[in-house]
Amino acid sequence: MANIFNNIPADIPNEIFEDIIKTKNLRVERIVSKGQSSPDTGWYDQEENEWVIVLSGFGEIEYINGDKIILEQGDYLDIKAHVKHRVIATSPDEATVWLAIFY
Amino acid sequence: MANIFNNIPADIPNEIFEDIIKTKNLRVERIVSKGQSSPDTGWYDQEENEWVIVLSGFGEIEYINGDKIILEQGDYLDIKAHVKHRVIATSPDEATVWLAIFY
Question: What ipTM goes with this model?
Answer without folding.
Answer: 0.95
